[in-house]
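Lab manual, section 2.4: Encoding a predicted structure.

Procedure: take the sequence of the chain (192 residues), apply the prediction step described in section 2.3, and record the output as structure tokens. A sample record is shown.
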Amino acid sequence: MSQERRPTAPDIAVALPIVPMLDLSFQILFFFMITFNPSKAEGKMSLNLPATGQAKAKDAESVDLSKPSDVDLEIPADFVVLIRASDDSLSLALRSAEKVDEIGMVRGLDEMSSRERQAEVNRLLDKLRAELEKRIAGKREKEGASATDNVKIEANGKARYAMIVAVMDTCVKAGYAQVGFAPPSDWAQQSP
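Recorded output:
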């Protein structure tokens, strides 16, 4: 039994169907665009930037870095949120011109599971938010529309970046539009 080959037309080419693949990719893109839900506080942080000025030095060699800046960029804040962290504890406090008010402290962080640690830190942040909301409501009630909403964060050197960001988010969620930073208390000990 001999096998016969059927003749094929030489002008028929095999092509990859591109249109259905493009259609599917655009449907997937549309799905992710529609289902994307950014958080409300994302991208709504105002920053205090220095004003533009003129350079006083003629060239880079004539700049003396040992002299302090002659422009004071200190922006007054209603109060400072203090973050004190160590290997096994975390505390939050609010410092105003009059006094320091303790918000709370969590000890034994190194002995807790990650879920317990996160729950304790969230409780502490909730207490901070409640106190911040109470303070800004009182200030707005007393001063009206002209009330400022500036707050600074001062963290020691052992504070983790994620904790500082969580405190910043808490300040923004409580109603403070301008969140700045104060130099840490242990900064002078670290610098040469």
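Check your result against the sample. Helices lie at 18-35, 114-143, 161-174, 187-190.
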